[in-house]
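hiii so my PI (J.) wants the whole complex modelled not just the main chain, which honestly fair. so below is everything: two entries, each one labled with what it is. i double checked the lines twice but i was tired so who knows lol
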Amino acid sequence: MNAITHHNAIVADRGASGAPPVLEVERISKHFGGFCALNDVSLSVPAGGLVGLIGPNGAGKSTLFSIITGFIAPSEGTIRLRGSPVDTLSPFARARAGMVRTFQVPREFSHLSVRENLMAAIPDQAGEHLFDLFFKPQQVRIQEEQGAALVEETVDFLKLKRIADLPAVKLSGGQKKLLELGRVLMTRPSVILLDEPFSGVNPVLIAEIIDRIIELNERGISFLVIEHDLEALTRLVGRLTVMDYGTVIAEGAPQAVLADARVRAAYLGGPA
Amino acid sequence: MDAYLAAIVSVMLIYVLLALGLTLQYGLTGLINFGMVGFFAIGAYTSALLALHGVPVVLSVAAAAVVAGISAWPIGLASLRLRDDYFAIVTLGFAEIVRLTLTSEKWLTNGVQGLSRIPPIYEGTGTAAAFVIVAILLAVTVAAIFLIHRVAHSPFGRIIAAIRDNEEAVQAIGKDPARFKIQVLVVGSALAGIAGALYAHYVTYIVPEQFVALATFYVWMAVIMGGVGRVSGAVVGTAILMFFLEGSRFLGDFLPWISSVQMASIRIGVVGLALVLFTIYRPQGLMGDFTKR
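here's the output for the full assembly
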């Protein structure tokens, strides 16, 4: 097997075809008044899969992310996480259930340091309860020490050590993207939805982010990634879904999808 | 002069408690509460009524904290899903409803006549008693400073700071912002209730007109001048406020042709001018980050 074939085989495996879906989006529609933002959209992310979601601006990708994670209610359709519907769950309950997201424009906690941003995301902290804070100080202290150790691991993993004590507001756009990835990692997720993780990021940092995502995927975390940088995305994902005007127009292996005439016409600017 | 100084310090310490409550709610969490005086009034009347019915002052003050805190809870539930500016309006309206209720429910509050002969914080007269009262108020204030400082530098404080920065991102990491905001509203309002109770037992006579919106805005001025989000700012800002409020009292000595009614307005104007100057020249407040403008 030559290097290119080997690479393609590895990437195809990230589609995790045959694995049971960790995330299922079933027939989601969303109307804003008379405007139909999403029309009967279905897709799935297999357990251990790495799926890309592309489409022109305004195709409805970020709206779909917001619906999946509970920030916007759909007009119709169902979202399932590990087979169970999560439609009635709030955004924070979905995150606790293991489905987390990043945002197109990073939403760092700007007045907190990088370490504090990561600490904030650790689940089930006794010190976040006022009663425990004053009446179980020992438990709070122990959890803080354990949390700090976990944060150090994440800081090392994402190579954020140099900036770990800086307020998040002072980070560059790419560093904020890494910080958001780190923050969702602290929640111990099973599926991560990344909204344009490479936008505004320099090529060196893009390579860094890709490496980290692949490593996390190999540890069993599934990903659904919105991205316009097709070169970077096709290095990453095993399956690609394409949206246009609120509908899914193609899905499958990246090379096949990108060769699809409708995709070329709608997104790549080539002949139909 | 000693008694006058003790009186100023006593009122200042009561305002520091209010400013600490607002620091927790606005400075640390970003909740715009324009109704602090409503919880202050609830605390004052709760404690005064209980003490007038024979309940020991210590228990009355504790009950005032509980009642003020509990009264904030439904407002939190009903309003925390509102946008910041609407929440601010709800709290402003709440404080007015409290004042109008105190005025109209004569069977309970004695209406505009108010409540008199409220048992004092400390029985006694003269300068020595005044300083004992200052010591009691100081002890309560120090305890409140410890409470807010502990909350601010804790995992709980980290989450409320995150809420202030970006509420949606807090949800995205699996935390429920409403739970934290309601707790902050309740604790801050309980502090305002304690302040109100101590005020009632300090002045020993309360009427609804003491609880107008201006009191809320004095607290806001103190927090802004001291430095939003700084516990030390609540203390220093209140001291600055008292300096301008009390200092301007002596303006009358230099402007004898101005009536006392006009002078009252001028004093408010002086405080307002100080706030404008702070906002222009030191927007981060006196205790805010010295590296920023």
